[in-house]
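Hello forum,

I keep getting stuck at the same step: I have a sequence, I want structure tokens, and every attempt I make locally crashes halfway through. Rather than fight my setup again tonight, could one of you with a working pipeline run this one for me? It's a single chain of 76 residues.
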Amino acid sequence: MGKIDETKEVLNTLRIALTIGMGILVMIIGKLIDRFDNNRIDGVFWLGVFVTIVLIGIMISLVIKLSNRTKEIKDL
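Reply #2:
Ran it on my machine without issues. Output:
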């Protein structure tokens, strides 16, 4: 497998991970809003807020890696 093919596979994997992460993020935020509307601000709510912040950080790192790999293809 050539270097460009390997880089394309990594790009596809990062895109899939980003898509799955966005789906999970949307579901968690939807449930957090539902709990907030029902005045159920408890430990589960704050755990969800923490998980959301961590997930956003992971997604930002995925976007940065995706950008770097895209620039790498340009150089090949």
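The chain has a mean pLDDT of 91. If your local run keeps crashing, start a new thread with the error log.
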